[in-house]
Description:
Number of domains: 2
Helix content: 10-25%
Radius of gyration: 22 Å
Strand content: 25-35%
CATH class of the largest domain: Mainly Beta
CATH topology of the largest domain: Thrombin, subunit H
Shape: elongated
Strand order of the largest sheet: 4-5-6-9-8-7
Number of helices: 5
CATH architecture of the largest domain: Beta Barrel
CATH superfamily of the largest domain: predicted glycosyltransferase like domains
Order of helices and strands: HHHHEEHEEEEEEE
Amino acid sequence: MRNRRNYYHVLHVQPDAPAEIIHMSYLTLMKRLRMHPDLGGDHWNAALINEAYATLKDPDRRAAYDRRVERQAATDATRTATPRALSTGSRARVELPRCAFCGTSHPADAVEAGARCDACASPLRPAVRYRRSATARRALDRVARTIPLILTLPGARQVQMAGTTEDLSITGMQFTTPLELLPHELIRIECAFCGAVAVVRHVRATRAKKPSWRVGVEFVTLLIKETRGSIVSKRA
Length: 236
């Protein structure tokens, strides 16, 4: 998020507070607690309070903000999570492989080519990592292709949206979408070329008339559907 401060904390209200409580808290902060610059308050704090209030008083902006907070929390949890092991005496029993998207455990022998998660249908096979060598250059080169996408965001309330590829390879892709994604966010991708779980590497606003973003992702897991006439062979 551009502003990592929590707007609910800024206004001293709970996330489920009704609009009337948010309005009363705003007035209390700006007038009774003299946060307004005309009453001796700090300009920076007043600007932050106004920004929080402008977002939370509008139902659409508040709903969008709540979704971003939920997604950011899920992304932060994914980035800080570490593999766990169950201790047994002097030995450790490592947990079973987990789905990269939803975290569901699977038998070790289930992670094979074409395997999908039983819970969320995400591909389980880790994407192949190639070194930047002459033999791998062709596999790493991005190919300009326009393919419709269905993108799914993680979380209890999974959000789906459409997108369109601009270029792709077997290590990642670039696409445009009307919803701004977050750096390091995990997403699920389905298109004619592949199914994948990917991590967002960069997000840039386009210059299109309607708001849209150009997103670059790196595959975490990958299931290639299209092989004939595509950028890879069945062996890739």
